[in-house]
């Protein structure tokens, strides 16, 4: 088993080199998984994992419906109303632009879920403000990237990471996604955000430089257009609906017959929570069409275009990363980690945050990292008496940090495109605030019981 673990480590190093050299992430991860499957004799298991994950509604429904909703928000302009509502007070106060942009993007990411869509809707408003204040393109990109990807979506019960943790801890009182988003994740996410924001704010004094005289066109119409409060509230509709229908509030009850066939024994279908997320996103689409009726005609077209984008660029990455994680497990990596944690239980918390961070930085997806690696730490957590749901919060936040510092992540590429900077430069600069944040989270979890 140790020999195959060493082979797996070599495959990881080779995969990292190929990805950094520009190879497609999905091709590299799937090829590496099949290679390890051939070495261990588990290649049929890899193929089964590929096919089952490709059609797993736990990922397809929430991700594709959330991306469809994000496209509808962009089509109707509701996302821009929310962004302008958040950023307008910052226009006259230059000193608060950096933390203000980061916080605004973080808040928008909570209902939108998609980091790329968050950057796409915040960027056109935030970047001209930062550039006009004299900040460089790279600094502007760092602020947009950090706010859009540091982990705001983890406070939304519809985030797929929460569904992964919930599925592994069925029956745990904190396992339902609404409970995770309300109880276990906010302390971890907000500590990470606070430390990363402060470090970024301080370091930007080193990176700051006067912008060139010709700053390019600034969309003054976008930044000064009137704000419709009704449109600004549309992005929050699915989020509020999910909290209202989940524990502990239970203000609304979605009949199971709406989303899944009734069972003879009266029990709830396991897919209920996943499909309620999709239903909440459809309600958001309907709200956008009602608030902006002149754009209603093409809302469903935009929804399915966004769903297709989510499948092609997010679900596909989760599928291949899950195959890679399965191959690593077959190679004995999970068993080796479990043995190491049994010998040194104090390593559980750092490893649960840092290993997903490294994998997400490699593959560019926090969702894929959480899905692939959380199972590596679930059983060791139970063995040493650590709450697996609280440990899942560390894994999710570590994965979000790794995605944000990945030069191949979709959100990094989007921020680089919007600001005219280099993805690798953004990733290198944003890593220091993120590492400071995750180190603080680990220390507080180990010594203060965060």
SSE order in H/E notation? HHHHHHHHHHHHHHHHHHHHHH
Q: Span between N and C termini?
A: 35 Å
Overall mean pLDDT score? Answer: 89
- Percent strand equals under 5%
Low-confidence stretches: 210-222
Structure annotation, total helices = 22
- Give the number of domains: 1
Shape, per Cα inertia axes: globular
Q: How many β-strand stretches?
A: 0
Overview of this structure, please?
By secondary structure, the chain is mainly α. Helix content is 75%, strand content 0%. The protein has one domain. It has 22 helices and no strands. About 3% of the residues have low confidence.
Draw up the topology in text.
Blueprint: H1 2-20, H2 25-40, H3 43-54, H4 57-76, H5 78-87, H6 97-112, H7 115-132, H8 137-149, H9 160-168, H10 177-207, H11 220-224, H12 229-233, H13 237-245, H14 256-259, H15 272-291, H16 299-330, H17 333-343, H18 348-363, H19 366-384, H20 388-404, H21 410-419, H22 423-447
Give a quick set of tags describing it:
0% strand, 450 residues, mainly alpha, 22 helices
What's a concise summary of this model?
It is built from 22 helices and no strands. The protein is mainly alpha-helical. The longest helix has 32 residues.
């Amino acid at each position: 088993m140790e020999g195959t673990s060493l082979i797996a480590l070599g495959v990881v190093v080779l995969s990292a080199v190929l990805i950094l050299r520009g190879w497609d992430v999905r091709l590299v991860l799937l090829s590496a998984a099949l290679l390890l499957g051939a070495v261990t004799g588990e290649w049929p298991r890899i193929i089964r994992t590929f096919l089952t994950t490709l059609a797993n509604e736990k990922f397809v429904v929430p991700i594709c419906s959330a991306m469809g909703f994000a496209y509808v928000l962009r089509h109707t302009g509701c996302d821009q109303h929310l962004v302008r509502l958040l950023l307008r007070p910052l226009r006259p106060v230059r000193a608060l632009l950096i933390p203000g942009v980061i916080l605004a993007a973080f808040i928008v990411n909570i209902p939108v879920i998609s980091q790329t869509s968050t950057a796409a809707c915040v960027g056109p408003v935030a970047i001209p403000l930062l550039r006009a204040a004299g900040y460089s393109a790279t600094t502007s990109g760092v602020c947009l990237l950090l706010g859009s990807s540091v982990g705001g979506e983890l406070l939304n019960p519809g985030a797929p990471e929460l569904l992964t943790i919930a599925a592994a801890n069925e029956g745990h009182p904190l396992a339902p996604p609404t409970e995770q988003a309300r109880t276990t994740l906010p302390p971890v996410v907000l500590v990470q955000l606070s430390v990363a924001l402060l470090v970024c704010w301080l370091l930007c004094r080193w990176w700051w430089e006067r912008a060139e005289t010709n700053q390019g066109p600034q969309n003054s119409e976008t930044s000064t257009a009137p704000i419709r409060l009704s449109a600004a509230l549309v992005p929050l509709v699915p989020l509020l609906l999910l909290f209202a229908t989940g524990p502990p509030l239970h203000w609304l009850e979605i009949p199971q017959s709406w989303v899944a066939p009734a069972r003879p024994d009266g029990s709830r279908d396991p897919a209920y929570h996943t499909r309620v997320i999709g239903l909440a996103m459809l309600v958001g689409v309907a709200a956008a069409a009602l608030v902006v009726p002149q754009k209603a005609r093409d809302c469903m077209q935009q929804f399915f275009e966004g769903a297709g984008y989510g499948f092609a660029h997010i679900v596909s990455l989760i599928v291949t990363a899950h195959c890679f994680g399965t191959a690593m497990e077959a190679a004995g990596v999970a068993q080796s980690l479990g043995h190491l944690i049994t010998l040194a239980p104090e390593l559980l918390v750092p490893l649960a945050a840092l290993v997903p961070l490294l994998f997400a930085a490699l593959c560019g997806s926090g969702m894929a990292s959480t899905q692939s690696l959380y199972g590596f730490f679930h059983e060791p957590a139970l063995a040493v008496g650590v709450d697996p749901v609280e440990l899942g919060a560390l894994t999710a936040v570590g994965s979000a940090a790794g995605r944000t510092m990945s030069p191949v992540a979709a959100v990094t590429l989007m921020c680089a495109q919007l600001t005219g900077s280099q993805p690798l430069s953004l990733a290198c600069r944003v890593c220091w605030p993120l590492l400071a944040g995750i180190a603080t989270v680990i220390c507080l979890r180990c010594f203060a019981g965060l």
